[in-house]
């Protein structure tokens, strides 16, 4: 049966499925970077939570490099949700 949208944004859909807003685990990625000799990184993201989560894993995030995203009719609601509910900087 094909997926049918029920009109929920990404955060609402995660909550309805019993998940947190973002359940990604940054421990393995951070351990890989540290095992390769990295202790400081520049991180390309618009999500400030990712910066904090990597810092919590012992990496020094020396710079957050923003991702420039053009808003279109196709991604406007998605980006607005990221801005309002996930604290992204756009």
What would you note in describing this structure?
With 90 residues, this protein is α+β, with helices and mostly antiparallel strands. The protein has a single domain, classed as Rossmann fold. Helices cover 40% and strands 12% of the residues. It contains 4 helices and 2 strands, in the order ααβαβα. The protein has helices at residues 10-16, 27-35, 48-56, 76-86, and strands at residues 40-44, 60-65. Strands 1-2 form a two-stranded parallel ribbon. Helix 3 links the parallel strand 1 (40-44) and strand 2 (60-65). The N and C termini lie far apart (36 Å).
Topology:
Elements: H1 10-16, H2 27-35, E1 40-44, H3 48-56, E2 60-65, H4 76-86
Parallel strand pairs: 1-2
The biggest beta sheet is recorded as:
2 strands, parallel
The helicity comes to 40-55%
| Shape label | globular
Helix and strand content put the structural class at alpha+beta
- Contiguous low-pLDDT stretches (5 residues minimum) are none
User: Separation of termini?
Assistant: 36 Å
Strand order of the biggest β-sheet: 1-2
Strand content: 5-15%
Whole-number average pLDDT? 89
What count of domains describes the coordinates? 1
Number of extended strands: 2
Under the CATH scheme, which class?
Alpha Beta
């Amino acid at each position: 049966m094909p997926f049918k949208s029920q009109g929920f944004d990404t955060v609402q859909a995660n909550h309805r499925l019993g998940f947190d807003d973002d359940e990604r685990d940054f421990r393995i990625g951070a351990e890989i970077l540290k095992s390769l000799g990295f202790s400081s990184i520049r991180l390309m993201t618009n999500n400030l939570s990712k910066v904090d989560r990597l810092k919590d894993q012992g990496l020094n995030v020396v710079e957050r490099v923003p991702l420039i995203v053009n808003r279109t009719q196709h991604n406007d609601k998605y980006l607005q949700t990221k801005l309002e509910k996930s604290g992204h900087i756009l």
